[in-house]
Specification:
InterPro entries: Apo-CII, ApoC-II_dom_sf. With 97 residues, the chain is an all-alpha fold. It has a domain of 33 residues. 88% of the residues lie in helices and 0% in strands. The model has no long low-confidence stretch (mean pLDDT 78).
């Protein structure tokens, strides 16, 4: 019986001393529910994705791809018209001579 009393007293002392070492929660965590935590997490992921996409767009604009594509189209059109003109002349001389 004495052992049970000693163990009970020791457990009570440890429980009280452990209670004094607890760190109190911050008020924000107590007020913030699970849904608001999930909402905040989703908002932060969305903001990160938008920022990353904006950075990629700025990098692409920095490369001036639109201008390069227009130049490529113009050069290709000029080259094709030249070669089609040459082919037309060749066909004309083959069939009319």
């Amino acid at each position: 019986m004495n052992k049970l009393l000693v163990i009970t007293v020791l457990v009570a002392v440890f429980a009280l001393s452990a209670e004094s070492f607890r760190v109190p929660r911050q008020a924000d965590e107590e007020e913030q529910g699970t849904i608001s935590k999930i909402t905040d997490t989703v908002k932060s992921y969305y903001a990160g994705a938008v920022n990353t996409a904006s950075e990629y767009l700025e990098q692409i604009k920095g490369l001036k791809l639109e201008e390069k594509a227009k130049n490529l189209y113009t050069e290709t059109s000029n080259i094709m018209s030249t070669y089609l003109g040459i082919a037309q002349d060749q066909l004309y001389h083959i069939f009319h001579h």
